[in-house]
Each structure stands twice: as structure tokens, then as C-alpha cells.
């Protein structure tokens, strides 16, 4: 649709920007240092939430890689290059979260329970249609993109954090924003013969399933880590929910972006937030390895 000036209006179909470059920032964080047990401003709740998130990434990102690669055949050259870049970024994220999780273990936390449950859940996906694994990946990538945007927009999330830990999370957030459209574009490619109704129905139902499991398990994992600090009971749960929903309130703040996933014409790049990348990546001067070539 065009307006009376002959230019396209905002309801045109959104897509990944043509001039997007996905860059591999091959960074390493926290090597050879001892991280505080409560590395995020001395707050056990904030620390436990991010440790619980990190514990899921090594196996989760390997799952994302395989789900996207399974549908790359026949992809247009631009998408094929972006998939290669996505894979390289996710491999580096896996490496850094393994190192981060090891530091949490060195600080005294047992992370094995979380890792084992993730392994068991992912084992259940082996026999289901590959397209459903891609739908789950697409939904989870939207979660990582939403949180990445919030982490870079609101410095309060890592205020008072150990420097190396905070830099790792910001680096990860930059790349999650940068490749936020890859799984979705792969989905559009893989389902190009589907009706719009079927595509919307499957992606929406999967997001609801993913959301229920994501919230349930992340809260359980966080409470498990807090229990290892001797912190449990209703007051601790209230502190966790206040952290997630009030201050800094990551779940409250990402809710509008979560709702947008269900709207007609949704695409991750309908909201172009690359300015956050340019603003934040000055912390990483060695980010010079283009991956989409």
C-alpha cells in the first residue's frame, strides 16, 4: 500500500534489512580470573537468574544450530550466508557459556541438574518432525532477541556486575539482535508452500508451549540455585518475582515484544534496533571477523 506521496506505508511486509551484516565477534571472557559467587552486584537472586539462563545455552544453542541447518537446502544465497554466520556465532556463544558455567561451578554451584534436565527435554525432540524443532527454535530466538534488546537498552540489568561477566552478556546480546531474523527467515523458506493460516497457527501454538516451559523451568532452575545458597521459602520466591516483574523487570519489559509475535505481518526486523549494536559494540574493538562472506 502507498500513501498519497507515493511512498510505502508502514504496513508493508517487513523483512530482514538488505544491508544487514552478521559479524562473528570471536571474543573470550573471564579466562584466568575468579568470579564472585554473587557476581551480579552481590545479589543472589539476579545472579541465580542469569546463571540458570546460562546453564541452558550450551545444549540449547546446539539444538538451534541443527534445527536451522536442517532447512537450509534451497535457501536463497543471502539467507544461506546468514545461516552460516548464525552457526558461527552460536558456536562461539556455546563456548563462552561453557566457560561461564564452569566459573559458576568453581564458585560452588551445582549446575549439573539444570544441564541434565535440558538434555532430557531435548532428547524428546529427536523423533518429532524437524519443522517443529525449527518452530521451537524460532520462538526461543525471539526470547533471546527480546532479552538482548532489553539488556542493551537498560544498563540497570548489569549494574554492579563483575566486568567480564557483564561484557560476556552484552557481547551475546549484540549478536542475538544481529541474527534475530535468521531462524524466522529459515521458517518462511521452509514453509513457503503452507497457507498463512497454517503457518500462523503452528508458530503461535509453539510460542505458547515454549513460553509455558521457559517460564516454568527458568523459575525452577533459579530457585534451585538459590536453595544452594540456603535461600528458600515464600520470601525468596517473592524476591525473584519482584526482580523479574518489577525492578529491573525483564519479563514485564519484554511483554509487548512477546505479544507482537502473534500479530499478522510479524517479522523480527519490523523493529530495527541495530542502533543498539553500534552503541554497544565499541566495547569489543576486535569484532572484525565478518562471517557472511
Automatic annotation (TrEMBL):
Cite the PANTHER family for this sequence.
Answer: METAL-DEPENDENT HYDROLASE (PTHR39456:SF1)
Per the UniProt entry, what species is this protein from, by scientific name? Pacificimonas flava
The protein here is known as FF domain protein
Q: Which domain of life is it from?
A: Bacteria
Name the Pfam families for this protein: Metal_hydrol (PF10118)
Amino acid at each position: 500500500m502507498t500513501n498519497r506521496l507515493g511512498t510505502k506505508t508502514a504496513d508493508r511486509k517487513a523483512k530482514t534489512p538488505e544491508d544487514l551484516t552478521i559479524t562473528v565477534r570471536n571474543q573470550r571472557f573471564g579466562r584466568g580470573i575468579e568470579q564472585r559467587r554473587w557476581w551480579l552486584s552481590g545479589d543472589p537472586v539476579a545472579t541465580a537468574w542469569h546463571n540458570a539462563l546460562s546453564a541452558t545455552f550450551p545444549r540449547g544453542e546446539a539444538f538451534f544450530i541443527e534445527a536451522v541447518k536442517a532447512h537450509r537446502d534451497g535457501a536463497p544465497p543471502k539467507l544461506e550466508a546468514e545461516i552460516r554466520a548464525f552457526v558461527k556465532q552460536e558456536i562461539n556463544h556455546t563456548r563462552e557459556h561453557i566457560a561461564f558455567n564452569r566459573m559458576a561451578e568453581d564458585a560452588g554451584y551445582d549446575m549439573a541438574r539444570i544441564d541434565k534436565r535440558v538434555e532430557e527435554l531435548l532428547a524428546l525432540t529427536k523423533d518429532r518432525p524437524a519443522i517443529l524443532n525449527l518452530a521451537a527454535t524460532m520462538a526461543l530466538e525471539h526470547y533471546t532477541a527480546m532479552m538482548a534488546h532489553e539488556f542493551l537498552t537498560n544498563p540497570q540489568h548489569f549494574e554492579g556486575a563483575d566486568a567480564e561477566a557483564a561484557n560476556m552478556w552484552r557481547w551475546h546480546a549484540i549478536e542475538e539482535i544481529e541474527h534475530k531474523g535468521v531462524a524466522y527467515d529459515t521458517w518462511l523458506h521452509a514453509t513457503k508452500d503452507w497457507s498463512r493460516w497454517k503457518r500462523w497457527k503452528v508458530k503461535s501454538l509453539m510460542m505458547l508451549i515454549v513460553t509455558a516451559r521457559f517460564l516454568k523451568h527458568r523459575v525452577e532452575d533459579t530457585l534451585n540455585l538459590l536453595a544452594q545458597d540456603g535461600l528458600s521459602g515464600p520470601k525468596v520466591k517473592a524476591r525473584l518475582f519482584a526482580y523479574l516483574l518489577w525492578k529491573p523487570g525483564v519479563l514485564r519489559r519484554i511483554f509487548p515484544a512477546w505479544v507482537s509475535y502473534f500479530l499478522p505481518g510479524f517479522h523480527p526486523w519490523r523493529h530495527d534496533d541495530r542502533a543498539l549494536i553500534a552503541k554497544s559494540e565499541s566495547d569489543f574493538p576486535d569484532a572484525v571477523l565478518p562471517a557472511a562472506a
